[in-house]
């Protein structure tokens, strides 16, 4: 039978083996989890490094305790001249434990030196990704945001898309795991691009996204999605005054737009007038729309609104005033009549002066 001391040694060995097995399982789970999950703060560019450092510190403290136990056990045996069969078994157990711990160390070392490109770094992972790391994608709110992740031909693994800020697994290959149906992955059979599509993008979709290839160790690159709000602007003043009978021309420009609007609607008051046949025409360009009314009438006065797709609308107020031509003509006629009267008066005055001159001269000669 085993004595009390031998039972204690055997119990300690079993405990160490169980702890080593638990650490191996924990390390495997951490390694698998780190291949999918990334740092919680999407704005912290050093989050991956902090996560790796935290794992290394935790591993160091655990290994320190195991090493101290291991050295103490070997020290006790080295002081004795005779080694029993039981002690040989203990040595074998310790050797097995050392091998196990070396495997765990290698696992964590591989995890620490993972091919995950740091967010603060640029460039691509040679031989795997063709897209540059830390690529910034600018998309317009309300449109479909597309993140293109190109992978080389040397890997046959499918691509995993992860949203970093909440650890959401969006898609694996062409299978969507997100509960949000706006997210989906697209990939052609002979195309290297695995594109993440986000339909009807909102400002809440902005942030970092990870494109990951499940190699060993896992390899990833990151994308920063920026969402902008487009808006319309009508050229000129917010209030326009035109004369009756002249042409009304309004030009609407779509600004901060990442793509041409699918439509631009013009409204007069609350009625859409794009397809009116009563002298109204609309001409759309890539980022502009022009409303033209050939001859403005008083009924055309009011509020006009330009409404592009996925952009903030813009409005102007138009005032139509009556033409000044009749008044000008009347004013011209009055001016002509006055001029004629003035000329006649001057003529009569001159005649009177000449007559008086002649009378005075005649009086002097015969007086």
Major beta-sheet overview:
6 strands, mixed
Measure the end-to-end span: 183 Å
Beta-strand portion reads: 25-35%
Question: What strand line-up does the widest sheet have?
Answer: 1-9-8-3-4-5
Q: Fraction of residues in helices?
A: 25-40%
Q: What is the residue-averaged pLDDT?
A: 73
Q: How many whole angstroms does the radius of gyration measure?
A: 44 Å
Secondary-structure element string: HHHEEEEEEEEEEEEEEEEEEEH
Tally the helices: 4
Overall geometric form: rod-shaped
Total separate domains: 3
Strand element count: 19
Structural class, by secondary structure, is alpha+beta
Unreliable spans:
28-97, 103-121, 326-333
Keywords: Signal
GO biological process, one term: synapse organization
Organism: Arctia plantaginis (Wood tiger moth)
Protein name: Ig-like domain-containing protein
Question: How do the helices and strands line up, and which of them pair or pack?
Answer:
Layout (H helix, E strand, L loop, with lengths): L3 H33 L10 H32 L6 H28 L22 E6 L4 E6 L9 E4 L4 E5 L2 E2 L6 E4 L6 E6 L8 E7 L5 E10 L1 E5 L4 E5 L4 E8 L8 E5 L2 E2 L7 E5 L3 E6 L8 E7 L2 E2 L1 E8 L3 H42 L1
Parallel strand pairs: 1-9, 10-18, 11-19
Antiparallel strand pairs: 2-7, 3-4, 3-8, 4-5, 6-7, 8-9, 10-12, 12-16, 13-14, 13-17, 15-16, 17-19
Helix pairs in contact: 1-3, 2-3
């Amino acid at each position: 039978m085993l004595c009390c001391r031998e039972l204690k040694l055997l119990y300690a060995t079993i405990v160490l083996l169980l702890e080593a097995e638990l650490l191996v399982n924990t390390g495997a789970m951490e390694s698998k989890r780190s291949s999918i999950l990334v740092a919680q703060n999407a704005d912290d560019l050093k989050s991956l490094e902090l996560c790796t450092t935290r794992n290394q510190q935790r591993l160091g403290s655990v290994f320190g305790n195991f090493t101290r136990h291991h050295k103490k056990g070997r020290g006790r045996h080295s002081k004795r001249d005779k080694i029993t069969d039981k002690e040989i078994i203990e040595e074998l157990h310790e050797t097995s434990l050392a091998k196990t711990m070396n495997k765990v160390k290698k696992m964590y070392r591989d995890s620490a030196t993972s091919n995950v490109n740091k967010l603060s770094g640029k460039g691509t992972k040679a031989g795997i990704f063709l897209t540059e790391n830390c690529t910034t994608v600018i998309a317009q709110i309300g449109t479909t945001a597309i993140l293109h992740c190109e992978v080389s031909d040397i890997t046959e693994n499918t691509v995993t898309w992860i949203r970093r800020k909440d650890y959401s697994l969006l898609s694996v290959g062409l299978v969507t795991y997100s509960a949000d149906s706006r997210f989906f992955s697209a990939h052609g059979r002979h195309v290297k691009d695995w594109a993440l599509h986000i339909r009807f993008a909102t400002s809440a979709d902005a942030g970092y996204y990870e494109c990951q290839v499940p190699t060993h160790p896992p390899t990833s690159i990151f994308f920063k999605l920026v969402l902008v709000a487009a808006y319309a602007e009508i050229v000129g003043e917010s209030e326009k005054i035109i004369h009756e009978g002249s042409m009304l021309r309004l030009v609407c420009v779509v600004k901060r737009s990442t793509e041409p609007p699918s439509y631009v609607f013009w409204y007069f008051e609350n009625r859409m007038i794009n397809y009116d046949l009563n002298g109204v025409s609309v001409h759309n360009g890539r980022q502009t729309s022009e409303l033209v009314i050939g001859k403005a009438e008083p009924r055309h006065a009011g509020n006009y609104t330009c409404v592009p797709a996925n952009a903030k609308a813009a409005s102007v107020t138009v005032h139509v005033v009556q033409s000044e031509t009749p008044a000008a003509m009347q004013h011209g006629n009055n001016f002509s009549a006055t001029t004629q009267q003035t000329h006649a008066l001057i003529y009569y005055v001159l005649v009177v002066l000449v007559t008086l001159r002649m009378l005075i001269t005649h009086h002097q000669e015969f007086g």
